[in-house]
Design goal:
The protein is built from 16 helices and 15 strands. It has 411 residues and is of the alpha/beta class. The protein has two domains: 137 residues, Alpha-Beta Complex (Aspartate Aminotransferase, domain 1), CATH 3.90.1150.10; 240 residues, Type I PLP-dependent aspartate aminotransferase-like (Major domain) (Aspartate Aminotransferase, domain 2, 3-Layer(aba) Sandwich). It binds pyridoxal-5'-phosphate.
Length: 411
């Protein structure tokens, strides 16, 4: 069987071999804890401080303001809960939006149950948050705004600079979840104007379980993890030294090739979008057409389930066919086929929200692989649609007036 085509890089990426090589010594000869004072410890300490500098450089930050975490989920939970707790004296109102990642929405829900008020703004049909709506939602007791930099499912890049201007004017702390943008598009936290920024190594060819929260000097935040003096007592626990070293190396590699790689992927992305739009019917591009991550393609495909498409592509039946790994917005969450809250927030009707596929590219993605993937996708969709109980049949039956239930299913 030919080599598989992995196009689910918004979920995770393969660790770069150079990153892995940089990490291995810190499991073996230099395994010391950076908290200890003997030589083995100071080797590790130096390594994490170099990683801190490289991580800071990736996002235009001061290295003193980088705090290592286990990834974006922790960074996001920490930003929400830590700022909420630290600023409780000023108020208990937080603003975010309906299309956020669960690592933002769940901590918000947790706070809501404890008496906090949370305003979740709607997004438009392209997934954009309206800065004017953010401004209008700010109250005297608003202490935090959290908006994702780019959506992991549909790739829409939010107008965070504009929102930052509004937040600053009103003295509201502003957190940006940059899990999808760090290492993929140029990020400069000073230019973005936010106060906190989350990132995750495994989204840009680093290891899983390593990430960071950038906290601008002077921003008040209580720790999430307590019981150690690490990270200036703000994030306790023995450092994940190999992971942090890997994050630093991945940041350095990403920074070295950011503009070229983002241009290359944008070309492949637009090629895929163009081919899907010219070769398939009854589809919808999800996410903004131009304000979009270079590596993200997301389509709704009417009449079939995203999960069926995803599974058919990953287990091709034809001899010699290559598996293509993509993802769907109708993933099996807790055993039920629920369309994602993000697609629903775009206002998509249920059939379109169910039939969504996300193709997300990496530095390993080539134009040839993209051609193969689009062809495989078109073939799988044609086959599944031919078997679909709802695709195009409902419309015919509506015309003949035979079955009201099918009419509903297809409307
Ligand atoms: C992947 C991702 C996360 C979670 O990051 P982990 O490091 O896997 O915990 C959070 N937000 C967004 C937008 C992501 O893409």
């Amino acid at each position: 069987m030919d080599k598989a085509i992995f196009m689910d890089n918004a979920a995770t990426t393969r660790t770069d071999p150079e990153v892995l090589s940089a990490m291995i010594p810190y499991y073996q000869e230099s395994f010391g804890s950076p908290a200890t004072l003997y030589a083995l410890g100071s080797e590790a300490k130096q390594a994490i401080e170099l990683a801190r500098q490289r991580t800071a450089d990736l996002i235009g930050a001061d290295q003193k303001e980088i705090f290592f975490t286990s990834g974006a989920t922790e960074s996001n939970n920490w930003a929400i809960r830590g700022v909420a707790e630290a600023r409780e004296d000023k108020g208990r109102h937080i603003i975010s939006n309906q299309a956020e990642h669960h690592s933002i929405l769940m901590p918000l829900k947790h706070l809501q149950k404890r008496g906090w008020e949370v305003t979740l703004l709607p997004v438009d049909a392209d997934g954009l948050v309206d800065p004017a709506a953010v401004k209008a939602a700010i109250r005297d007791d608003t202490v935090l705004i959290s908006i994702v930099h780019a959506n992991h499912e549909i790739g829409t890049i939010q107008p965070v600079e504009e929102i930052a201007g509004i937040a600053r004017e009103k003295q509201v702390t502003f957190h940006v979840n940059g899990a999808q943008t760090a290492g993929h598009v140029p990020v400069d936290v000073a230019r973005l104007g936010c106060d906190l920024f989350s990132l995750s190594a495994h989204k840009f060819y680093g290891p899983k379980g390593a990430g960071a929260l950038w906290v601008r000097r002077g921003v008040r935040i209580t720790p999430l993890l307590m019981g150690g003096a690490q990270e200036k007592k703000r994030r306790a626990g023995t450092h994940n030294v190999p992971g942090i070293v890997g994050l630093g190396k991945a940041a350095e590699l990403a920074r070295g090739n950011l503009e070229n790689e983002s241009r290359r992927l944008t070309d492949i992305r637009d090629y895929i979008i163009g081919r899907i739009e010219s070769s398939m019917e009854d589809i919808r591009l999800n996410g903004h057409r131009s304000r979009r991550l270079p590596n993200n393609v997301n389509f709704s495909i009417e009449g079939i389930e995203g999960e069926s498409i995803m599974l058919s592509l990953s287990y091709p039946t034809a001899k010699g066919a290559r598996p293509v790994y993509i993802s769907t917005g109708s993933a099996c969450v807790s055993g039920t086929l629920e369309p994602s809250h993000i697609l629903l927030a775009l206002g998509l009707p249920a059939e379109l929200a169910h039939g969504s596929v996300r193709i997300s590219l990496s530095k390993e993605s080539t134009r040839e692989d993209a051609e193969y993937a689009v062809k495989a996708l078109a073939e799988v969709c044609e086959r599944l649609r031919a078997m679909s109980p709802i695709y195009k049949r409902g419309a015919k039956q509506c015309a003949s007036g035979s079955d009201g239930r099918d009419c509903e299913a297809a409307s």
